């Protein structure tokens, strides 16, 4: 009889997060047949189907949802065990500079820095916020040890070949709506539900993600144009429209605002990457590990 394995749990969780076997294979660096074998072994172990194939991707069955929920706790506990063991001999010290694009500074970076202060108390992490071109320049010049940038649809295609790249988050854009809005509490909606809504739009710094209406909508209704996140979300909270919010920042919205995930087959999404020099220090490696763990936790909550 097959056993439940950590690899199997990891694969099932990734499929649930990404929505397909092929996307999970890309994210984990596996072949698609290897993903299918892991799922088959897990289904044999629990005695139920975990995923149902659909026209686009897969859906999670009730048994699959139970497995994914336990996977989050089990894998988190295993990561915690490794951290505790590593901390017994931890000698990391020094200063690591981390630069990040604005949306990631709302939740991801602060939580990762807090995690590092516990796991590696001798390591001083200095975060800074900047536009992506500035982050890349500072990483090349040595002023930064780690840079966190956004990549994906409708963003500049930067040449990153000189850097080591670590995928942090494959979450997508969310939509922020005011409390009491017809989509409030929906959790997940079809993109067609956004037609006719009034949008609060703005722009990030040069080279950073631009935040207009939902990217695939035609002729959206623009109600207000403002630059900063507090102003955009304040207008949403006042009931004057809805706005885009990166998944990484979804948990930072103020009272009076909730977020919904949008299903849109025409939108390929965005991702957050951590970049370092290819010859990476132990301190920078620890920062990247904390970023990946924190992003993983945020993505599980969002999904």
UniProtKB/TrEMBL annotation:
The keyword DNA-binding applies. Residues 4-61 form the HTH lysR-type domain. The keyword Phosphoprotein does not apply. Transmembrane segments: none annotated. GO terms for molecular function: DNA binding; DNA-binding transcription factor activity. Belongs to the LysR transcriptional regulatory family. Gene3D superfamilies: Periplasmic binding protein-like II (3.40.190.10), Winged helix-like DNA-binding domain superfamily/Winged helix DNA-binding domain (1.10.10.10). PROSITE patterns: HTH_LYSR (PS50931). Pfam families: HTH_1, LysR_substrate. GO terms for cellular component: protein-DNA complex. Keywords: Activator, DNA-binding, Transcription, Transcription regulation. Required for the induction the katG gene for catalase. Involved in the response to hydrogen peroxide. SUPFAM superfamilies: Periplasmic binding protein-like II, Winged helix' DNA-binding domain. This is Probable hydrogen peroxide-inducible genes activator.
């Amino acid at each position: 009889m097959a056993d439940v394995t950590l690899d199997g749990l990891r694969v099932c969780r990734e499929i649930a997060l990404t929505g397909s076997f092929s996307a999970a294979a890309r994210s984990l660096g596996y072949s698609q047949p290897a993903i299918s074998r892991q799922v088959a072994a897990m289904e044999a172990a629990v005695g139920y189907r975990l995923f149902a194939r659909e026209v686009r991707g897969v859906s999670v069955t009730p048994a699959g949802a139970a497995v994914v929920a336990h996977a989050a706790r089990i894998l988190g506990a295993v990561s915690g065990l490794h951290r505790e063991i590593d901390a017994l001999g931890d000698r990391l010290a020094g200063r690591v500079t981390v630069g990040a694009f604005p949306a990631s500074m709302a939740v991801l970076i602060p939580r990762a820095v807090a995690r590092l202060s516990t796991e590696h108390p001798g390591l001083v992490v200095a975060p800074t916020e900047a536009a992506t071109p500035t982050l890349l320049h500072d990483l090349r010049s040595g002023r930064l040890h780690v840079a966190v940038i956004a990549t994906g649809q409708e963003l500049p295609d930067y040449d990153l070949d000189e850097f080591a790249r670590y995928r942090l988050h494959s979450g997508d854009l969310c939509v922020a709506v005011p409390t009491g809005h017809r989509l409030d509490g929906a959790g997940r909606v079809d993109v067609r539900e956004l037609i006719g809504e009034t949008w609060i739009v703005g722009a990030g710094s040069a080279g950073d993600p631009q935040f207009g209406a939902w990217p695939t909508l035609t002729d959206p209704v623009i109600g207000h144009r403002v630059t900063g996140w507090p102003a955009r979300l304040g207008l949403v909270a006042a009931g004057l429209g809805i706005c885009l919010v990166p998944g990484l920042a979804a948990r930072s919205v103020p009272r009076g605002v909730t977020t919904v995930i949008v299903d849109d087959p025409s939108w390929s999404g965005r991702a957050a990457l951590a970049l370092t020099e290819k010859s990476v220090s132990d301190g920078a490696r620890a920062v990247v590990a904390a970023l990946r763990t924190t992003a993983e936790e945020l993505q599980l909550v969002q999904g």
